[in-house]
Design a protein that fits this description.
Number of helices: 11
Helix content: 25-40%
Number of domains: 2
CATH topology of the largest domain: Toxin ADP-ribosyltransferase, Chain A, domain 1
Mean pLDDT: 79
Shape: globular
Distance between the termini: 45 Å
Order of helices and strands: EEHEEHEHHHHHEEHEHEHEEHEEE
CATH architecture of the largest domain: Alpha-Beta Complex
Length: about 350
Amino acid sequence: MVEILKQGPKGNVVLFASEVESQMALEEAIENGFGDCVELNPPKRNTRRQRDHAGPRGLKRPLGLKIACPPLTSGDVSTAFQDPWAQAKNTVADISTDAVRATNLVDDDVADLDALHKAYFAFSKAGTETAPTWGAELQPWAERLRGGMISSAEKAAIAKDFAGSYGLVPDEEEALQLWSRDYAIQQRPLKSGAAKIPDYASYCVRKTRLSQETIDMLLNSRGGKRGEPGVYDVGDLVINTQSIDFANMASGHPRFVMATTPGLINYHGDSSVIMSSPYSFVIRSRKGKYITPVTVGKEQMVEGQPEIIFLDGEQGRFKLLGWASGQNGKPAVFYFDNVN
């Protein structure tokens, strides 16, 4: 049996807002191997783990424990369960001055790592922002959106114009909107719709939780599902814990969509939750898809919530360039190049 409580901002224990939030927190803790949780009143002897109680991906589930876990802060967590304290935290933590290089980098990779780390280090230390470079096709849409500070009628007009400009059919529009609003996954129309949108080629950031298994894979440059060392698919790096995959509802949590935020920017509102999660992916995007112009017509986008997505097997792969440590000396920021 596992009794799970919510860890407050000063290490104190607070109650969950509802049974639903408590259950979701437990599921996320299991997904992450309880790596972010602390044991309350631990016994003097080691807690035994039984072989027949394994969580997802073979992670052992502790028995007879009382634990406190951080609030839900994943970028894929529904707005209903986002924690006010998490939103109020400083958006960027200090990182180490130097980045650690991954293995088997060529000269261009080293230059890319240095550029990404320099930009993110400046963001971490001094709040120096790096605005997204939208490119000729996407820039007009970003300008029209103005960070979401426009009327509902303007949002609807932008969504209609964007869909018309790139030939999105109603099923594709709906799939993109369902993902953005509810984290629901309809793979076929998501794939076909995203394929019609121009590529975003600039920096983007994802704040996320990672299991120890995933961290070990990255630090040792082990291969993902394709076995190529140091190069990963979306499915190797992401678990969509709050999503339903309508085509594969019996297969557990999907590993299909990587949601990111363009540029290195201090965002406000709901996006500050993304900026408070334990780990960062800083990505040089080449194939990401800017979906906000078509999704904004069906959601109340607050200031600063543009979204770049990568779909598993569709928008390239991710070559690990290196990582930087956080204040505790452990890896906190992972740098990737989005490769074909």
